[in-house]
Amino acid sequence: MPQSEVERIANIEDPFLLLRTATERLNAAQQEVTELSRLRRRVIQDLHAQGMSYAQIAKEAGLTRGRIHQIRHTGPAPEGAFLGRGTITLALPLKREALNARPVVAMEDVTAAKRLEDLARGFDLPFELEHIPLDGTIDLNRPNLIVLCGPRISPVMGALYESDPVLEWVKDGAWTLRDSRTGDTYRSGSDSDPQRPVDYAYLGRLSRPDGNGNVLVFTGIHPQGSLGVVQLLQNEINTLWGQVADRRFSTVIGVEYDPDTGEPIRTELASPLYRHEEE
C-alpha cells in the first residue's frame, strides 16, 4: 500500500526537518481547503444564477437544502479569485530618490499596496510584497502575481504591455494611454493645460511571457491613478469578476482625485472593458 503523505512526514527522523515539512504541508492544505471552499461557493452561485433553486441544487449534489444555503453564504467569496488563487505576490518598483539617489518605494505605491493587501486578506488570500529593482528586471512567469509598474520604469513590463491587442502606452511629450480600436487618447490632467485633478490608469490581465498563465497588472499615468485602480477594485471587484472572471482583459480607469491629498474621489471605466479572447 502506498505510503500516505502524513506517514511520510511522520517518518522524517530530523525533528527540525519534520517540523518545517509538517508546517509547510499544513499551510498548503489550509490554502487548498480555502480554494475548494471558494470554488464550491462559486458553483452554487452560478447554478442559482442559471435558474436552479437551492432545493434542486441540493438534490442533484446529494446535500441538504440547508447545507447548500450554508455554503452559499459562508466561506471566501468567489470574486477574490479575480486577484488570484493562493498566496498573492504584489511587485512594486524601486525608484531613485531625487536628493541622495537611494532606492525607495513611492509613498503612493506603499499606500496602494496596503489597501490591496487588506482587500486580498478579506478574501482569505495570503499576501506577500516584493520590490522590482532599479534596473526593472522581474520574473513574470509565476502564479498569483500582481504588478504595479509602468513601462517607463521596467523594460520587462514595457514588453508585456506591448502584448495588449487594444490599449497601448504612448510617449507623446508626456505618457498617455491610447485605444487603438477607437483612437481615443487618455492624457493625465496634470499634463494638460489647464491642469485638472484627473488621472488615467491601465488595468489588465495579460498573458505571461511563457504562455503558462496570466499576470494582473495596473498603474496610473501618475500615482493618483494607481490609487484609483485600488479604489475601483475595492468597490467593484464583484462586477469585474462577473465580466471577465480570471480571463485576459484590459481597460482604462478614469480617476478624479482631491488636488490637496491625491486621494481618489471618483473612479470609473473610461474605456470599454476589452476581453482579449474576443479580439
Biggest sheet descriptor: 8 strands, mixed
H-E order: HHHHEEEHEEHEEEEEHEEE
Count of DSSP-assigned helices: 7
Cα radius of gyration in angstroms: 22 Å
Helix content percent band: 25-40%
Number of individual domains: 2
Report the strand count. 13
Secondary structure category: alpha+beta
The coarse silhouette is globular
Describe the protein's architecture and organization.
By secondary structure, the protein is α+β, with helices and mostly antiparallel strands. The protein has helices at residues 5-10, 15-49, 54-61, 65-73, 107-122, 155-161, 223-244; strands at 88-93, 95-96, 103-104, 127-132, 145-148, 167-172, 174-179, 185-187, 198-207, 214-220, 249-257, 264-269, 274-275. The protein folds into 2 domains: 5-76; 81-278, no CATH class. It is built from 7 helices and 13 strands. A hairpin with a 6-residue loop joins strand 11 and strand 12. 30% of the residues are buried. The model has no long low-confidence stretch (mean pLDDT 89).
